[in-house]
Amino acid sequence: MQLDINGKTVQVNATEDTPLLWVLRDHLGLTGTKFGCGMAVCGACTVHVDGKAVRACVIPISVVAGKKITTIEGVAASKTGKAVQDAWLSLDVPQCGYCQAGQIMSAAALLQSVPKPSDADIDAAMSGNICRCGTYPRIRAAIRQAAGGTGEKS
Amino acid sequence: MNAMLNRRDFLVKAGALGAFVLVATSSGIVKAEEAPKYGADGMPHGWRDDPLAFIAIAEDGTVTVVCHRSEMGQGVRTGMPLIVADELEADWSKVRVKQAESNEEKYGNQDTDGSRSTRHFFDPMRRCAASARTMLELAAAKSWGVPASEVQAVNHEVVHAKSGRKASYGSLAKAAAKLPVPSRESLKLKSPAQFKYIGKGAHLLDGPDIVEGRAQYGIDTRLDGMLYAVIARSPVFGGKVARYDAAEALAIAGVVKVVEIPGTPGPAGFNPLSGVAVIATDTWIALKGRKALKIEWEDGPNVTYDSKEYRAQMEQAARQPGQVSRDVGDVDKALASASRKFEAEYYLPHIAHATMEAPAAAARIVNGRCEVWAPTQAPHVTREDIAKRLGIPFERVTVNVTLLGGGFGRKSKPDFALEAAILSQQMDGKPVKVTWTREDDLHHDYFHTVSVEHLQAGVDANGKVTAWLHRSVAPTIGSIFEPDPGHEANWEQAMGLVNLPYDIPNMRMENPEARAHTRIGWFRSVSNVPHAFAVQSFVAELAAGVGRDHRDFLLDLIGPARKIDPSSMKDDWNQGESPQRYPVDTGRLRRVIEVVTKEADWGAKLPKGQGRGLAAHYSFVSYAAAVVQVSIGSNGELVIPRVDIAFDCGPQVNPDRIRSQLEGAVVMGLSLATLGEITFAKGRVQQDNFHQYQVTRIDSAPRDIRVHLVPQTDYSMPLGGVGEPGLPPIAPALANAIFAATGIRIRQLPTRLQLATT
After folding, report:
1. Total domain count, chain A
2. Minimal Cα–Cα distance from A50 to chain B, Å?
3. Are strands B95-99 and A52-55 parallel, antiparallel or unpaired?
4. Above 50 in pLDDT, residue B649?
């Protein structure tokens, strides 16, 4: 099966029911996308499929074939993605960092669709992503900062 | 960050703490043994400060600092290099970090727990860097033929002011490394006024790797030809595989092998649980294979473990006298003569660590040497236990410490790394990675203890507390290391039960019996969580009972500023620290209360349905006080708009990481207080994943967390812990806020379901 990941076409030799997460991690070595729950309740595995945030742990590869998949390793290619990463660094958001790829992917997808999110928008878009270290106040602040940086766009 | 005595401490120190130990020798002469060792000196393998072990300088000037403590979000991989860079006079932009493998002979103690890394290694790291700086200066002086006293290291160069000559660190490194390491006594450490980075901080060294998805956690390990394993483990602790049928699993394309892992009778230790492993060509196939296994379990005696029944048993125990741990004055008499008596009982359930990276590790065995990659807080024990389990010499085991996707004490127990090593051995040394699913993690954690805390107090006619009785009932972590002692260890009791620094004339602390029926383990701040919840809630109940302001009442209870010898409170452990260097300083405890109440506008009026709650707690030789503000809707909906926390950990290295640890402690504290609960029925954990074991998410986390660090600029003062001590005051401050807002007194956690008005 062929997948379009971070702008590249890759050949994958896995059964059709395999969730995208395990293909990214085990087959392609794209380990930036994390495993957290396996049932789309923690957000650690968030990637973009055609620009929308989805949980890679429950999406079989058969569903995403032919669609544009972006992972944390490729999100900097978009202005919004880069702005989010920069804001994350400037506020030193991460603690252990494990959930942060998923947080960044959710935040980037939010800012793509809502460039100036309210607190309620942030709650709605980000409450699917668990951070056990409790970096939420900084995540919120970083999204606000990134929104300022990409205010003109879209 | 987390946890206290590890098993090695436990075995080494269990009976040996305290003053000089007098032993009778064979000749009959009694001699004094070595004085007890404190701090890093008292840890297995202590500390090292060899610059050649910790610091490398490349010809291009890049400084690589070896971090020998595990990174799990506390920022140690930035903090250690920061200390080194400052004392080395290095340019921070040229500093990199490298993770040490397990090697305590070389690096000193590596058990990353007990909020000890910076506390124990601030001084050795400074000496290490000062040595390297001196060697660079000597190398430059030698090459210029000038006296060493005339040259000075300044920002990555050595300068000879008289001649205007300069040499970069990179150009001096080779020659410097060949010079003898200067003696400790000869080292000139910077004065704090000269610090460039210490106390000021820096951005995370791992930040770019994390936000770009390159950071490597244990679960990310990839080795050539690696196989992927998941394991079905006995659902009841102590149970074992009776029989299993792997035929259907083996029929799945990509399933390579099915292997039974035998359990270990007796105390759990860090041994893998009895289970059946499926080894496959990717994780997904391994998961499918596991689903296809047919396993019959022999549950064993813990199949009767039921959280409801167990709570009733603990309550019964808590209502009767138990083993006395500390006894001051005459509590019974004081209670009998008190003008008012108060009594309350608090219940805190088991909780799971639920690190976002569930346990995972990879191993391979080549030519009789086992190499492991693991997100471990305990590299040395991991190595030791793997050597023992595989039956190979310790020297033939290498443990590479990856980043930890959360630790909180879970990853002090290397059972998962042993599993990887066992499976690699079963596959003739092929690389195997074991991944735990979230279900595995929640079902087979080393759980935070469950407890009932029973308190009674007597108050005289003037509203002064004259009697204090506290019975703590909780299964002990000691039960994983030895046949269940049935009582909290002295170090668990020294986490807020016995070492109550209050000015009360009659006090008794008791510890009735409780038996463990699952694996109990360190959870961030450990027994401080139940003890502080009970004590700080009860103090608020007493204040309300006598009609006094909680803050004023608490400050009176603490009494005047004084330094208390912990051993005078039956705390002979004192976090492993010297009682002289680390007395309990009630002045510092008072100060964090004063700071936090002032900053949080304590006493200012709030609208109906809102309230503030206060709690303060001393742990990990640091002082913390929090004010939680809540708003309760008419439907019982709890909103926590703001939390203030004041903190005194002595001198600071990287203040922003202290702030982030406290922000995290606030969120984790609220999470366990509002949502966290693991329950057992028929010996089995009833929560499978995050839909049932809920944790705080961004929409219910406080939007406004204000951290107030008490500045300490005297760097000769001992450092306190940071990772854990922020946690204990949060849950009681929340409960006290709920009381202030509604009059509802929360006496059991979590608060979930207790506020709804349906």
Report:
1. 2
2. 20
3. unpaired
4. yes
Among residues A96, A69, A92, A98, the alpha carbon closest in space to that of A139 is found at A92
- CATH value at residue A136: 1.10.150.120
Q: Which of A12, A21, A26 to mutate to test the interface with B (most CBs of B within 10 A)?
A: A26
Interchain CB contact of B316 with A (< 8 Å):
no
pLDDT digits (tens, 9 = 90+) for B422-473: 999 999 999 999 999 999 999 999 999 999 999 999 999 999 999 999 999 9
If you search the block for the tokens 């409450």, which residue do you land on?
Answer: A127
Same domain for A99 and A35: no
What is the pLDDT confidence band of residue B713, given thresholds at 50, 70 and 90?
confident
A68 SS3 class:
strand
The pLDDT assigned to B528 comes to 98
As a whole number of angstroms, the distance between CA B283 and CA B288 comes to: 9
Residues of A in contact with B220 (CB under 8 A): 25, 31
Domain that holds residue A134: 75-149
Identify the pLDDT of residue B753. Answer: 85
Each residue's pLDDT tens digit, B515-560: 999 999 999 999 999 999 999 999 999 999 999 999 999 999 999 9
Same domain, A34 and A85: no
User: Is residue A133, in this structure, part of any structural domain at all?
Assistant: yes
Name all domains of chain B by residue range, CATH numbers in brackets.
51-211 (3.30.365.10), 224-301+359-435 (3.30.365.10), 307-351+446-742 (3.30.365.10)
Determine whether the interchain pair B207/A14 forms a contact, defined as Cβ–Cβ distance below 8 Å. Answer: no
Q: Which of residues 117-176 of B touch A (CB under 8 A)?
A: none
**Which amino acid belongs to residue B283?**
T
| A145 interface with B at CB cutoff 8 Å | no
Residue A154 lies in a domain: no
Is A65 among the domain residues?
A: yes
All residues at 6 or more sequence positions from B185 whose CB lies less than 8 Å from its CB, including other chains = none
Residue with tokens 């890049």: B62
Q: What is the pLDDT of residues B71-88, one digit of tens each?
A: 999 999 999 999 999 999
